[in-house]
Amino acid sequence: MGLGVLIFLVTAGPHTLFAREEIPYDPYSFVLKHPEAVTPHAARRRSEGQWITRLGEQPLRPVGHGLGKTVEWIERKHVDEKVVWFFDELSLRGIYPTLRTPTEGSFGTFGLGGRIDLNRLVQAENQNISFETFGGWAPSVNFGGTTFDFGGSYQLKLPIISGAYHEGLFRYARSSSESFYGLGNATSRGDWSTYSPRELWLEGSFTIPVTYSIEGKASVIYQNMNMGNGNRKAVGKIKERFASGVPGINGGNLFGLKAAFEYDTRDHEHDPKKGGYGSLDVSYVHDVDGSDFHYVKARGSIAQFFRLKSDRRVLAIRLSAEQNEELGGDDVPFFNQARLGGAKLEDGSELLRSYRHNRFFDRGLALANMEYRYSVYEYGDFQADAVGLFDVGEVFSDFGAFSFGELDLSYGGGINVKFRRQTIFSITVAHGSEGTSVYSHSTVSF
Amino acid sequence: MIEHQKRSLILNSMIIAIVVFLGMPVSGNAVTVEDMDRNVSERDTSFYRDFFDSVIYDSTAGLFRFDELWNRISFRKKQALDINVYDEVPDSGFFVNRHGKRQMSISDLKRGPETGAGPDPNGPWRVIKGKVEGVSAGFFIEDSRGDQYLLKFDPKSNPEMATSAETISHKFFYAFGYHIPEYYLIRFDPSILSVDPKATYYDEDGFKKPLTQEALWELIERIPKMKGGLLRASASKLIRDHKGYMDFDGRRRQDPKDLISHEDRRSIRALRVFGSWLNHYDLRKGNTLDAIESENGEAALKHYLIDFGSTLGSAADHPKVPVAGYEHIVDWFEIGEAIPTLKVVEKSWEKKWDKLNRTILYPSLGYFDNYHFDPAQWKTQLQYGAFNELTAGDAFWAAKIITGFTDEEIREVVSTAEFSDPKNAEILSEILIARRDIIGKYWFSKTVPLDDIRLFHSDGNTYEITFRDLSVEHGYVRPDETIYRYRMSVSNSGKTGTADRTHEFTTSSFAFEAPVLHSGERAAFQIQLKRGKGEGWRKPPLKLTVALGERGLLELVEIDHGK
Questions:
Q1: Residue B13: pLDDT over 70
Q2: Within this chain, do residues B459 and B524 fall inside the same structural domain, yes or no?
Q3: A136 vs chain B: nearest CA distance in angstroms?
Q4: CB-based contact (8 Å) between A375 and chain B?
Q5: CB atoms within 10 A of CB A421
Q6: Residue B160 forms beta bridges with which residues?
Q7: Do A39 and B21 touch (CB under 8 A)?
Q8: Mutation choice for A interface testing from B7, B55, B69, B205 by most A CBs within 10 A
Q9: Is A56 an interface residue toward B (CB < 8 Å)?
Q10: B208 secondary structure, DSSP code
């Protein structure tokens, strides 16, 4: 009996037992919920309505279409791969092109530069001696001027001491306009003037590795500096504004001896998360043309990188100090004095990023740069770090004249875009007592 | 009576119109293949183009699209337009109900869209050209039957990764209901390959060169070999005479049946949910194809999804990067949000990657797991407006289809990848099972997840509505912690009348006395639920509408899970 009921329930369904009737429907019916919206007329009306609400976008459409087609063409024709191939081929031949930016101003302006490893270029087999040549050019749209340099070097390995080598360097550099505001920390932007340096630099050195990460270097230097007025319009000329009182305003010929120690314990050259690097050098310099320059230069800097519990957070600190001490009542030419202001170390002026390049000149300098770099983007080989920065520094005639009250401050931030941990584009905004500056680079600050 | 006839006439006209637009064969309105071929233009895209459009153009132009801006500011969501009165997506050139409609057999699931056995294993296969786009190694062949296939291979560092991802995922997408080309997992001896004299390829440096036998062997050198020197590949049968990609936004105006903007299609919006399950972060217009196909003498555009090599843990030529699925390739919002937060707290995907010591544990699976998997936050590589238009109702629909796969079905589909180490299949199945449940649990909590709603007439004026509570059925919540309630109201021509009081109940059915419905009147039920003590009555409510049918009995005329 029980089995019979069970079979009945399974086959006929319990509803039958209780005389229930299901009222069926087709859940996949073609009757739409909003049929009025699915007509050609409604579709046309929606398209027209959308066109009106997107009226502001219409001017962008042809531009977007053109650019879209261009990138499509680049991919289809493998242009990107060909570009990579081109640069790979260059580097196989020892040619390393770079982008150059002007020393100041001209945001977004780039020039070209690079170096050539002559050994690779001619595929020389001798590994004990190597030759390199370099050069570059950058325009400045702000004043229609240019900066350029070229030079060469050779390196001779010394088999007596492992890792030791001798190096010779020749460099000629010329700039149509560099800024100068006078000497000291209390100069005014109203004294803005420009000079045009033409510099020949010859250096011979011996480098000996002390440890894996420390090396010592002794150099002999010859420097010939010709100085002219800068050609920036609406800005004073250095020789007119500072007719006297600025040592080196007419250039000079100098001879120097230099001893230096350098260390580098960074875990990565371009994107360090820990470790640090630094240098300490002392130079003795004397003129060779009777222009009364005779001084000792002592300079040191250390940069240290601290991983803050994650390599996505790094605190970078750089301390720098310099003192040029005249000897025998002679002078230190202004072009070899400590310089402060700007956002690019390679142009010789220390980092004080809300201030203009070369904003302060004097015989002494103390500076601290701090950056908190943290990851804000990561997708495969591409990364971007946001940077919070703080610079504090001062120039002075000697350390005794240093005053905390005269320290100049900059603070701000930026973004470093990296490809395989190497910065390919960097934008920095810094603010200080003289306003806000914006910089774009293709390198990290330090 | 005349009123009734009028209404019937209007209703019938509407149904016919809709049927025509949805592509059902109706004589007299047929569009021939030739017409369609003439009117629908071919169009191309590429990854760079998709990248540019999504990351640069749409991000910029979006600032001038006031309709989009208003929708964002007001959090306004629009109900999909391709859904029927029962909150389902009827079959169309975009979607065909398969596993969601009727449980497919294991063999059908494992077969997927295959109609044959793939390229003739006896060879010879003529290599007609190298693969031009995409990142994985591959080339096009024509087999002895004249069928053309694209063969794609695994990266040497991750054998079986990309081919297994493609094999598994295309079958799931087919079972969901999308149009998918035929993919075959094949193993072959490279000696059956011969090179067409006209074949060309792009070398690694981007230069187009004749594909010689030597060049082919060089390509093959980059492919991992299996036992006996066999090559393992995913072979996708080429769709001939296609018309290029399908946009996820807008519509093809040249197609007379494409009357719904694609961002208003549930089947397109829900790709975000289906994609999240299978980690298909490469859902982009470049991975779609529109083809003209003829059915019963009438031409229609069929919208295909293609290329599944970048699903699961695979990014085709390498494992997925740790951020994949968590952020778009350039996620302006995430970047903007990260800057002021100073990285005080690391992101979940960063923690996960660090916890794994930044290593891929299973090379054949790539980078794929469930830790910190959040279905609501999952993102495709490129951003599309359609995915942001997803409503709770759309997501419920997709989650319902996903949770419809049993553990066994998932394991069987995974088994078609034929991993050489069974452990890989086991791990992958477990991940997919867990992800399925995470998706179900999440999206079912955003709606009143009742399905399979049935209306019974008991006797006289008494009716009963039964349903399946999918959260209960799948074990995401306990049945005894759920309380349901309904409230009935009568409406006439869209105007809601007085509502009945609410009735609470705890079983998966409730009986009610039918109200007296006059001509044009409908009775609507708003059903809500709450689970446990902490939760309030869930919104949006599920709306069921009944009306008098021809037999004088109530009929279920509408189901709505809300926006």
A1: no
A2: yes
A3: 28
A4: yes
A5: 13
A6: none
A7: yes
A8: B205
A9: yes
A10: E
Same domain, B146 and B290: yes
Query: What was the pLDDT predicted at B297?
Result: 78
Nearest CA in chain A to B95: A28
Residues B381 and B325 in one domain: yes
In terms of domains, do B409 and B457 share one? no
Asked if residue B16 is part of any domain, the answer here is no
Give the single-character DSSP code of B314. B
- On whether both B454 and B441 belong to a single domain, the answer is no
Nearest to B18 among A30, A313, A378 (CB): A30
Q: Of B97, B323, B339, which is closest to A379 when you measure between CB atoms? A: B323
Q: Does B19 touch chain A (CB under 8 A)?
A: yes
Q: Where does a domain end: B413, B446, B479?
A: B446
Q: Which residues pair with B232 in a beta bridge?
A: B187
Give me the sheet containing B482-492, strands edge to edge. Answer: B495-505, B482-492, B521-531, B542-548, B554-560
Do residues B422 and B463 both lie within one domain?
A: no
**Residue B133 clears pLDDT 90, i.e. is over it:** no
Bridge partners of residue B198, in order along the sequence: none
Task: Tell me the average pLDDT across A248-275.
Answer: 96
**CA B386 remoteness from chain centre:** 12
| pLDDT per residue as tens digits for the range B45-71 | 999 999 999 999 999 999 999 999 998
How many domains in chain B? 2
Q: Does B335 touch chain A (CB under 8 A)?
A: yes
On chain B, the residues whose CB falls within 8 A of the CB of A21 are 456-457
- Are B554 and B410 contained in the same domain? no
Which one-letter DSSP state was computed for residue B52? I
Under a CB-based contact definition with an 8 Å cutoff, are residues B292 and B241 in contact? yes
Residue A368: how many CB atoms within 10 A of its CB?
15
pLDDT in tens, A372-398: 999 999 999 999 999 999 999 999 999
Q: What does the block give as tokens for B214?
A: 């030597």
Interchain contact, B65 vs A29, CB within 8 Å = no
DSSP annotation string for B136-184: S-EEEEE-TTS-EEEEEE--TTSTTHHHHHHHHHHHHHHHHTBB---EE
Stretch B411-417: mean pLDDT: 98
Q: Tens of pLDDT along B180-217? A: 999 999 999 999 999 999 999 998 899 999 999 999 99
Domain containing residue B493: CATH number: 2.60.40.10
Check residues B33 and B439 and name the one with the higher pLDDT: B439
User: Within a domain: residue B162?
Assistant: yes
- Looking at the predicted structure, is the pLDDT value of residue A11 above 70? no
- Asked whether residue B70 is assigned to any structural domain, the reply reads no
Same domain, B89 and B193: yes
- Counting residues of chain B whose pLDDT is more than 90, the rounded percentage is 79
Interface of A with B in 16-55 (CB under 8 A): 18-23, 25-35, 37-40, 42-43, 46-47, 49-50, 53-54
Instruction: Give one DSSP letter per residue of A339-388, joined into a string.
Output: EE-BS-GGGT-B-BTTSPTT-EEESEEEEEEEEEEEEEEEETTEEEEEEE
Which domain range does residue B106 map to? 77-446
Residue B386 is assigned to a structural domain of this protein: yes
Interface of B with A in 394-433 (CB under 8 A): none
Instruction: Report the relative pairing of strands A178-180 and A193-209 from DSSP bridges.
Output: antiparallel
Taking the whole predicted model, whether its pTM rises above 0.80 is answered as yes
pLDDT band at A125 (very low <50, low <70, confident <90, very high): confident
Distance CA A129, CA A158 (A): 9
Q: How far is B19 from chain A (nearest CA, A)?
A: 6
pLDDT band at B519 (very low <50, low <70, confident <90, very high): confident
Cα distances from B511 to residues A287, B374, B462, B486, B546, in angstroms, run 108, 38, 7, 11, 14
Which residues 397-416 in chain A show a CB within 8 A of chain B?
413
Of B446, B481, B515, which residue is a domain's last?
Answer: B446
More confident residue, B517 or A356: A356
Does pLDDT of A4 surpass 60? no
Interface predicted TM-score (ipTM) of this complex, two decimals: 0.88
